[in-house]
Design brief:
Lyase, Ornithine Decarboxylase, Chain A, domain 1; 2 domains; eight-stranded parallel β-barrel; binds ligand LLP
Length: 422
């Protein structure tokens, strides 16, 4: 379930007509379904049943505190990659011991803060990071529990820009060097090396890359143990894909079967960092058509959302379904339309030559599967304020991030007094 369905020709978010939300918040806005978020989390949990497993939601997918808090209320920890995400996770009610700090470039101040707050695990991605963490931790008389992020050199067969586990990608430590680095870590103060982490990419729609990476990790665990190292934690990252168009992503149960098969008898506790799978399909972006125009033999629907609100189509050529909020009548003729935003870039496009029923200015459109990597990647480009986020829960809704006013946007800058405005 994704929480959005037509009833009597109207798109509903759970029990609320999407069109009714427009009066309260104005377009464009993000809309999430609490039931769909709960459902995706619960299916992940039940797939992992019987395993010694913890879910640390990858906050980067959707870092609204209501979303983090909803998962936290169901028992989730958090996977964070910056001080900002760490602060958000804490503010949303995640306890520090259930926070995993990932990321290839954690700064001294971020490591210091995370140690002071008692972050549960640091996923270390390089020797210089290890040295820095040891320095910070020992200086504070603390010990950091760490795992090493391994680069297994496995191709995730996903978009080039979100593949992270191939040799030559910036992530992790080379597979062949892990033994040496582990031994070195044991010689350092303030460091307790406990295991390995792996994350080969995002939006994976096949399981074999997961299996290939997991089997390499399992082999490495046995080698490290033979060398006398303690390996009792594995962090298996995120990556499970969702439906944007016609993908058939594997269910969490099939994914969990591979995990059981590869790691079931290893005596390790497991961490999972799903992001997109938990939030992606549970969100839509609602936008209104400002103008219809014809140019160069093409039809354009110019909508009030833009690439600054949802950059995935521009950045990754990502395909998102776009549905009219008021359903077209069955059998209505369709014709190709480019659905574009108002930003001054040709790349500001949500859909190219998409077959759509007749569209008119004033119509509302829902851009689907926008709950992950949507709001979090937005910007104020073209001085467009960030757009609101709404969470629906049955027949109630809450504005979980209001639309900022223009004054807030304008007041962010300081005008030096040596610039005179005549
Ligand atoms: N863990 C680590 C270490 C990660 O780097 C990521 C995502 C995740 C977990 C969560 O992966 P997920 O379950 O969401 O696939 N902006 C891109 C996606 C970037 C993913 C970055 N890392 C997009 O819009 O497709």
């Amino acid at each position: 379930m994704n929480g959005f369905s037509y009833r009597g020709g109207n798109l509903f978010a759970e029990d609320i007509p999407v069109a009714d939300l427009v009066g309260g918040v104005g377009t464009p806005f993000y809309c999430y379904s609490a039931a769909a978020l709960r459902d995706s989390y619960a299916s992940f949990v039940s797939a992992l049943e019987g395993l010694d497993a913890e879910i640390c939601y990858a906050v980067k997918a959707n870092s609204n505190q209501a979303v983090i808090g909803l998962f936290a209320s169901m028992g989730a920890g958090a996977d964070v990659v910056s001080e900002g995400e760490l602060r958000r996770a804490l503010a949303a009610g995640v306890s520090s011991g259930k926070i995993v700090f990932s990321g290839v470039g954690k700064s001294r101040s971020e490591l210091t803060m995370a140690l002071e707050l008692g972050c549960g695990q640091f996923n270390v991605e390089s020797e210089p990071e290890l040295d820095l963490l040891s320095d910070v931790a020992s200086g504070k008389g603390k010990t950091a529990t760490i795992v090493f992020r391994v680069n297994p050199d496995v191709d995730a067969d996903t978009h080039d820009k979100i593949s992270t586990g191939r040799a030559g990608d910036k992530f992790g430590i080379e597979f062949e060097r892990i033994g040496d680095v582990y031994a070195y870590a044991r010689s350092l103060d303030g460091i307790d090396p406990r295991g390995l982490a792996v994350h080969i990419g995002s939006q994976l729609t096949r399981l074999d890359p997961f299996r290939a990476a997991f089997e390499k990790i399992a082999g490495l665990v046995w080698d490290l143990r033979k060398q006398g190292h303690v390996v009792d934690r594995l962090d298996l990252g995120g990556g499970l894909g969702i439906v944007y168009r016609d993908e058939v992503p594997p269910p969490p149960t099939d994914y969990a079967d591979i995990v059981r098969d590869v790691f079931g008898d290893m005596g390790v506790s497991l961490t999972f960092e799903p992001g997109r799978r938990l939030t992606g399909e549970a969100g839509i972006l609602v936008t209104e058509i400002i103008y219809m125009k014809e140019s160069g033999g093409r039809s354009f629907a110019v909508v009030d959302a833009a690439m600054n609100d949802l950059i995935r189509p521009t950045l990754y050529e990502a395909w998102h379904a776009v549905d009219p909020v008021i359903e077209a009548r069955a059998g209505a003729a369709v014709s190709p339309v480019d659905i574009v935003g108002p930003v001054c870039e040709t790349g500001d496009v949500f859909a190219v030559q998409r077959d759509m029923p007749e569209l008119n200015a004033g119509d509302l459109l829902a851009i689907r599967s926008a709950g992950a990597y949507g709001a979090v990647m937005s910007s104020t480009y073209n001085s467009r304020p960030l757009i609101p986020e709404v969470m629906v829960n049955g027949d109630q809704y809450a504005v979980i991030r209001p639309r900022p006013d223009y004054d807030t946007l304008i007041e962010m800058d300081n005008m030096p007094d040596w610039i005179a405005a005549d």
